[in-house]
Amino acid sequence: xxxxxxxxxxxxxFLPTKSNPKVALAIDNKLLVKSSFKLYNPFSSKAKILKxxxxxxxLTFNGLIxxxxxxxxxxxxxxxxxxxxxxxxxxxxxxxFATLKDKVVLQLQTEEGNIIGYVKFPLNELGIEHLENExxxxxxxxxxxxxxxxxxYDYFEGKPFLILEELDGEIGMPKLxxxxxxxxxxxxxxxxxxxxHPRVIALKNMTESYSLGEYxxxxxxxxxxxxxxxxxxxxxxxxxxxxxxxxxxxxxxFDFEYFVEEGLEYFDLIxxxxxxxxxxxxxxxxxxxxxxxxxxxxxxxxxxLRLFLIKETLLSEDEAVxxxxxxxxxxxxx
Length: 334
What we know:
By secondary structure, the chain is an alpha+beta fold. It has helices spanning 30-36, 45-60, 62-68, 78-87, 125-143, 176-185, 198-209, 213-225, 267-280, 285-296, 301-315, 321-330; strands spanning 12-16, 21-26, 92-97, 103-109, 115-122, 152-156, 159-164, 170-171, 187-193, 229-235, 244-247, 250-253, 260-264. It is 43% helix and 22% strand. The strands form three sheets. The chain has a seven-stranded antiparallel beta sheet with strand order 1-2-3-4-5-7-6, with helices on both faces. A three-stranded antiparallel beta sheet has the order 8-11-12, with no helix packed on it. Helix 2 crosses helix 3 (62-68).
């Protein structure tokens, strides 16, 4: 489906650049600007400065920003026409373009700048797989009051999409004790050795089905070296600062595309510090390994890190260059 189907009849500002946008924000007036900019939550200092600067000028010199940096008014797309009929109201959309190019996220506003909700729409088969997995995750977690239910699940031109409520709050960097509290709420009272843990068994089966004998053997070595048991948890799968929001007096998770119902304790915490260490602090190799293992506070940190790197490699083997290199640097299990 063409991206043009998701634009409303508005002027847009593309950030960080028009040639390589992360978001397209509706900026026709100050009310729309205030809501649209909530869709863009960069973590790098440079991107934050860009956002804050353009936000200020978009509010102060709205007409000038539209003329100089904005894109001309788009023609209302077929999906927006469909949503307007479905929701029985006029819609202004701002767009977030996923890094994997598997989906687009639409922020839906009224013409007065009130946020109606968010839509996740898949652009390819990978996007459909992620969306269906997120739907399953929300179905499970909402029943246990661990996340908000979605507003609607529907199809457009044969593709599924989710409508989600707005989570109004602050996205930031929670402290370690807060992260552990969040993860504790996702944990069960079922404990397994690594050899019998459902998550590890699933990883081993994947390596065998992909004929990755070196990883199968490594998992076996890790299981033999482990001396303790680990909880079965609801694994978020992309547990990162940009998927945690402080809203309505508590921290809440969103974006469950990589959710695993029978997950492994510590995987989410490793994911958090793997991404913050690599992407925000520019740590590499032994510095990144030391950074992660010190955060885990367990004598089996290196075993768990090896399993995590195998898991990440299986998710995207062709692109997991750094994960493979880190695995090699860790060497054999002693």
